TrEMBL record:
InterPro entries, per the entry: DUF2944
Protein name (database record): DUF2946 domain-containing protein
Lineage: superkingdom: Bacteria
Length: 198
């Protein structure tokens, strides 16, 4: 978290939280959702400002209940998730030829486990505690397939992450992802249902 954010929190500790205004979509784009977008259930406008994107990514965290938020100075802006709290891109390093995963902020994501959901989505969890859940950007499915041996059942297999490291591809249902990995996809829906943010 940026020092300027910590200072603002110390100075104004009781600023009300905000929900519904910020979305991380299925492709890792941050989107601003004004009143009209929220009323229409639309994803909102993509944020393109490089410095603002960096600020959001540096100050993106989860609370104790699994709700992800962007700490905007003294105000906590809870994030609506298009799927998981992180979206990763898969690429091959130009020098070493090794596969790399990076999250929507450009940070390295070291996978500990891989999953295939019942709609064909690929997910990873990392080695942090608690583990972070990320969905693979759909533009990278071909590269992922080149390094995967899918079992005959079409629901499991092996992902060759490194020459000496194979991740078992475990099946799971998309409807169970949020609960299984302990995050809240829609803090705004929780507030509307009468559950307060912590």
């Amino acid at each position: 978290m940026d020092d300027i954010v910590k200072q603002a929190l110390a100075k104004w500790p009781n600023v009300p939280h905000c929900t519904g205004w910020l979305l991380l979509d299925r492709r890792g784009n941050w989107r601003m959702r004004d009143d009209a977008a929220q009323a229409a259930g639309a994803p909102g406008e993509p944020i393109r400002h490089t410095a603002l994107l960096g600020f959001i990514n540096r100050n993106y965290e989860a609370d104790a209940t699994g709700q992800w938020f962007f700490q905007n100075g003294p105000q906590r802006v809870y994030v609506e998730l298009g799927y998981t709290p992180f979206v990763v891109r898969l690429a091959r390093d130009d020098v070493s030829g090794k596969l790399m995963l990076t999250d929507q902020g450009g940070a390295a994501f070291e996978p500990a486990a891989a999953y295939l959901d019942d709609e064909g989505g690929i997910l990873f969890t990392d080695r942090s505690t608690p583990a972070r859940a990320a969905v693979l950007h759909d533009h990278d499915l071909d590269l992922f397939s080149e390094h995967t041996d899918l079992a005959s059942d079409g629901q499991s297999g092996d992902f060759r992450w490194r020459d000496d490291e194979i991740l078992k591809l475990e099946p799971l249902r998309k409807a169970e992802v949020e609960k299984r990995f302990g995050f809240v996809a829609s803090p705004a829906a929780r507030v509307a249902a009468g559950t307060t943010s912590s």
